[in-house]
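Hello everyone,

My group is preparing for a crystallization screen and wants a predicted model to guide construct design. The compound we'll soak is adenosine-5'-triphosphate. Before spending weeks at the bench, it would help to have a computed complex in hand. I've included the protein sequence and the ligand's SMILES below. Output in structure-token form would be ideal because that's what our pipeline reads.
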Amino acid sequence: MRETMRIMVVDDEMIIRESFLNWFAKGGYFVDAAASGNEALIKLEKTPFDLLFVDIKMPGMDGMELLGRVKTEFPDTEVVIITAYGSIDTAVNAMKHGAVDYLLKPFKPDQLSLVLEKITQLKKRTLHYRYLKSHLKQITRFDNIIGESPPMKNIFQLIMEVAKTDASVLLTGETGTGKELVARAIHAKSTRAQHPFIALNCGAIPDSLLEAELFGHQKGAYTGATQRRKGYFEIVAGGTLFLDEIGEISQKMQVDLLRVLEEKKIKQLGSAGMVDVDFRLICATRQDLKAKIEKNEFREDLFYRINVITIDLPPLRQRRSDIPLLVDHFIQKYNAETVKNVDHVTPEALRLLMAYDWPGNVRELRNALERAVVLSKSRLLHVEDFSFLHLSAETSSDARSLVEIEKQHIRHILDQCNGNISQAARVLDINRATLHKKIKRYRLSPSSQTD
Ligand SMILES: Nc1ncnc2c1ncn2[C@@H]1O[C@H](COP(=O)(O)OP(=O)(O)OP(=O)(O)O)[C@@H](O)[C@H]1O
Ligand SMILES: [Mg+2]
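Reply:
Good plan to model first. Here are the tokens for the complex, ready for your pipeline.
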């Protein structure tokens, strides 16, 4: 808790505001006043308050309405209702709606002291509770991987088990689901943690270059090779090699990699001798390697070599219960990085974020929050702060156009068929080409996301 409690008095009568201000200022509290519900909300958006004294009867937004708004938008702020003597029913009703206490007008300073004492105690308890909660939260993150849904807990478990072994791991999953993050976590928890972790994106490097990068070369191996250069197979020396987009490597590279995995030795370009190598291999792919094997584009023997253990990362839309935690995590992260004062998202915005399908998965969610935090001017992120995601049209149940319904239905069927186009086309009773076109038009394909 802050050293001094921050208090705001919300009352349309100036005389009440002033007497509160005087009284609290003497007690060494930080105190502010607002003449209406709206003014109070504007102040709350700017800076946090621990406690609000709110008059029930005010023109415009009355005390009950303000209470409701505060409890949903700023749940950490406590509210004490001020009401006229004789309207105790209203006071009780306010407590039912989340007020911590009430004051009956007219009241004496002693009564105020009692209320304050009670709230100080309460705040201490909630702080303790929050501390416990944040302790418990540690179960919801593993290294830098955030998640509390059953599939993610399962993945944390798998990482622990796999890290104890030296087996090759294949990470599968859509873009942005955290494959690289998992690869790093496996390395960090393994006995190789003190050695390098080297990540190479096979899809981004031309084949000839990839070979030189991995195997290195002798001096004079080709024109321009003025000295011997070690490749990553050697540089990684005892560490973990992470080959991303493994489905992209050429047939020749596939043969070469298989040989290295079997012999644990390499032959540098332009050299006759062999060099011993020692590394753990982790590969990742967004593609269906089994389908590539069927088309003879990927070697089955290599597949079994790299795929001793598979960890499949589910898309975010299949573990929506992780979204609030991730939203919290990224708000804190970008808040700190951009020196902003954002606390949380409104319940309405969270509802929409949880309903959205996130084709770019956690990366897309991360980018969305970064953007919203950077542009935000208040403590809260509202639905409008995410308008670039076109959330509302997809989630409001009424007034949807036919196109919206079609889009949602196709997405639903694709999910049911695990993204299998042929199967989905059969269920939808349209041909594959048409389905492809619609996927493209509605941007349902996960491949359109970039970092
Ligand atoms: N569970 C998670 N918790 C926290 N951050 C996550 C999580 N999953 C992914 N991220 C973040 O999302 C971004 C993308 O993650 P990562 O690079 O691991 O995805 P990927 O599966 O390798 O994607 P691609 O297939 O596009 O390479 C990173 O910034 C990462 O930190
Ligand atoms: Mg990646």
